Amino acid sequence: MKILPPTLRDKKRYLAFELICEHEVTREELLREMFSCVGSLIGDVGSSECGIRLLTFEDSKGIIRCAHKKTGLTRAAVTTITHISGKRVLMHILGISGTIAGATEKYLEGIEVFTNEGIE
Asked: How many structural domains comprise the chain?
């Protein structure tokens, strides 16, 4: 399988976020609620156009990847998360970056990010 050159790949943006919550939230709980809220706000087609992926989530902080032209819509959709497993939460977007390294350095000090970016 041949990998696309960088000029033909879709551009991405990385949203660094902090989850303010009353209790510990697992990655699976966050994913379930995130896709539920995104799907109810913008639907299945809009969700697929945004290309939302949760890259990392650790200590209530993480990084979400999305399409670069859909950052505003993605930001609005994920901030609609208000409850996870019946407990109140608040999704606070710390910032947006063009690279994972930039998002980690600027907004998420001390969090290790392991992705499979080259595998897609």
From this structure: 1
